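Async update (no meeting this week)

Hi team, since we skipped the sync, here's where things stand on the single-chain job. The sequence we agreed to prioritize is pasted below, unchanged from the tracker. I ran it this morning and attached the output directly underneath so nobody has to dig for it. Comments welcome in thread, and please keep replies under the output.
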Amino acid sequence: MPEKKTSRLSGFYAKPLTERIAAVSEWAELSVVETATLSGGLTPALANQMVENAIGMFALPFGIGVNLLINGRDYLAPMAVEEPSVIAAVGNAARLARAGGGFQTGSTPSVMIGQVQLLDVPDLAVAAQAVLAADPVLGKLVDSQMPSMVARGGGFRGIEVRPLHDTPVGPMLIVHLLIDCMDAMGANVINTAVEAVAPLLESLTGGRANLRILSNLTDRRRAWAECTIPVSAFATDPVEGFSVAKGIADANAFAWADPYRAATHNKGIMNGIDPIAIATGNDWRAIEAGAHAYAARDGQYRSLTDWRLVDGSGGPALFGRIELPLAVGIVGGATRVHPTAQTALKILGVTTARELAEVMAAVGLAQNLGALRALAAEGIQHGHMALHARQAALAAGVPADQVDRVAAQLVAEENVKASRAAEIWAAQRGEDNEQ
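Output:
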């Protein structure tokens, strides 16, 4: 039996860049060509084919979230992000979650919503009944637009009608097509379907079809993640574990009750989710839109996570849960065009879009845990500024091979500023020249 791979990579951050690349390449069994995509992968010619008016590429750091144990399986999470501390927070929080068995995740089928806006409808109630009665006909028409998806088990799943009686332009009827997109994100297939059914809906309702497009509030396509961590795992000298765990629960309550705090709280969650979306070629703007709309589903914008103290099997524990819409794909779009996105998917080792969404939910929960733990224990700036010191040194013009040396002094002085980094570098150059 082959040796079981583990994502518990102690000291991974301290290894030289070349060793980290080699370790991940071995983990994912990357070819030489695939490993090379970690240094960019996108050519000017390919960029020119992907977007209009291309003039080049914009690079982001590509890192790895370690220590992730999800449903009993180890994962390495590819993350494209520029913000210091994000990847470190994921790894630290995932290590804490392992003390309680890691993350448990789940998801709904990949059902997306396509919307058709019908205006000038003579009678909304009569029109709604006519649309619902035509469900079989509409279903056949939708499925005829996507034979390959239907062959894989996806396709039409139903119709919904939503009369909107009071809008700035008067009453309107909104028709929802529910379509299982399987392993695709589904934007193109949804938009094709709503275009195809619009003439029939006009005939059924006597109205005029205006907008025909997917909704990014994909509340039928959700993923969730949970973890239960013994409070003892949070203990650090001299901080007692229970007080840290309680501080996390108290902080989450603040975000649940106050939208001003919830906006920052949820931004931290997306710090974990967006980098995976970017690395795998998924639409992070759509994911953001759906997540934030879902956070306000009861009429007030709230936290996407729930953290609370519970009685665990071995004593007090901290329970955490996240649930949110996550419309992602592993086929089509940039996921199959961008070479580095393909390598990122291979590193993850996911085989379905639902599995990818579940991993992203777990990473979002881990990122949130890392941020709240820092806030509840030593304060967010303690760890964040230590990691920011490298960026301050780079901003001051310190050569890459000397950045760690200057950053260490910035942290020791607790004065993480580019201006101070420039002074330190000038002094160190003077010392080196005298030797």
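Quick observations from my side:
The beta strands are 62-70, 73-80, 104-107, 111-119, 155-164, 172-180, 208-214, 222-230, 305-312, 315-325.
Residues 12-104+227-378 form a domain with the 3-hydroxy-3-methylglutaryl-coenzyme A Reductase; Chain A, domain 2 fold (CATH 3.90.770.10).
Reply here if anything looks off.
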